[in-house]
Specification:
CATH topology of one domain: Leucine-rich Repeat Variant
Strand content: under 5%
Number of helices: 11
Order of helices and strands: HHHHHHHHHHH
Structural class: mainly alpha
Distance between the termini: 43 Å
Largest sheet: none
CATH class of one domain: Mainly Alpha
Radius of gyration: 25 Å
CATH architecture of one domain: Alpha Horseshoe
C-alpha cells in the first residue's frame, strides 16, 4: 500500500498519464481521503477525457476538503469550458460553506448559460438559502432545460427552508405532469420489451420443431455506405455552437 507521498509523486509523473495506473491512483486517493493529492486532481480537470475526470470529481467530492474549493474558485474564471463543466459539479458536491460562497461569487461573472445552469444546480444540491433567489432569477432569465429542470431541484430546497414563492404551486403541477409523462414512457417501453421477449420465445419454439430449418439462401443485401464524413466525439459540433460534438448534438 503506497504512502501518501508516493501517491502524490506518482500522480505528478507524466508516465502514468492516460494509463490505468492513473485511474487506480485517483480512486485510491479518494478512498483514503488524501488531501495532499487535491492539487494534482484539480490540475487534471484541464485534460479533456471523460472517465478520468469523473473519477477525479468523485475523489474530490468524497474528501469534502475546502482546499479543493479554493483551488477551483481561483482558477475558474480563466479556464476552458471543459474545466468549468466538471468543476462546477464538484463545487455542488462539497458540502461546505466555502462551496456556497464560491458558487455565488462565480455566478456574478460567468456568462456561459450551461455553466450558469450547473452552478445553480450546485446551489440546490447545497440547500443554499442565499442561493434560492439567485436560482429563481436564473429560472426567470432562462437556463439550459435539456441539462436539468431547475424548478424541480429548487422545490425541495424551498420546502426544507419553509419558503413558498408565488410560482411554487405552478412548478408542482408541472412536476406532476412531467412525472406522469415519464411514467407513461416507461410503461410504453416496458410493453415494447415484453412484446419483443414474447416474439423471441415464439420464434425459439417454432424453430425447435422438426423440419423447421430449411436451406434457404438469403437474398443479397446492398451494403449501406456512408457518404458524409463521420463526426468524431471531440470534433466541433456541425450545428455551429462552438462546443464539441459529444457535449452538444452528440448528447442526443
Amino acid at each position: 500500500m503506497p504512502d501518501p507521498a508516493t501517491i502524490c509523486a506518482l500522480l505528478k509523473d507524466p508516465k502514468v498519464e492516460r494509463e490505468w495506473l492513473e485511474i487506480f491512483l485517483i480512486e485510491l486517493a479518494g478512498a483514503r481521503l488524501l488531501p495532499e493529492t487535491i492539487p494534482a486532481l484539480v490540475d487534471r480537470f484541464r485534460v479533456d477525457t471523460d472517465y478520468m475526470l469523473e473519477c477525479c470529481a468523485r475523489a474530490i467530492a468524497r474528501m469534502g476538503d475546502p482546499a479543493a474549493v479554493r483551488l477551483i474558485k481561483d482558477a475558474f474564471p480563466h479556464e476552458s469550458w471543459n474545466f468549468k463543466n466538471y468543476t462546477s459539479g464538484v463545487l455542488g458536491a462539497i458540502k461546505h460553506p466555502e462551496s456556497e460562497e464560491a458558487i455565488l461569487s462565480l455566478l456574478e461573472s460567468e456568462e456561459n448559460l450551461e455553466i450558469r445552469t450547473d452552478l445553480c444546480l450546485g446551489l440546490c444540491k447545497l440547500f443554499s438559502e442565499r442561493g434560492v433567489e439567485v436560482v429563481q432569477q436564473q429560472i426567470r432569465a432562462g437556463y439550459e432545460g435539456w441539462m436539468v429542470t431547475l424548478e424541480e431541484e429548487l422545490l425541495p430546497v424551498m420546502q426544507v427552508l419553509g419558503l413558498e414563492p408565488p410560482e411554487a404551486e405552478r412548478w408542482r403541477r408541472r412536476r406532476t405532469e412531467r412525472e406522469h409523462q415519464r411514467a407513461t414512457r416507461r410503461a410504453e417501453w416496458d410493453e415494447i420489451v415484453r412484446h419483443w421477449a414474447d416474439s423471441q420465445e415464439q420464434d425459439s419454439e417454432r424453430f425447435s420443431e422438426p423440419g423447421s430449418f430449411r436451406d434457404v439462401r438469403p437474398e443479397a443485401v446492398t451494403p449501406i455506405r456512408r457518404h458524409e464524413p463521420r463526426i468524431g466525439r471531440n470534433d466541433p459540433c456541425p450545428c455551429g455552437s462552438g462546443r464539441k460534438y459529444k457535449r452538444c448534438c452528440g448528447r442526443e
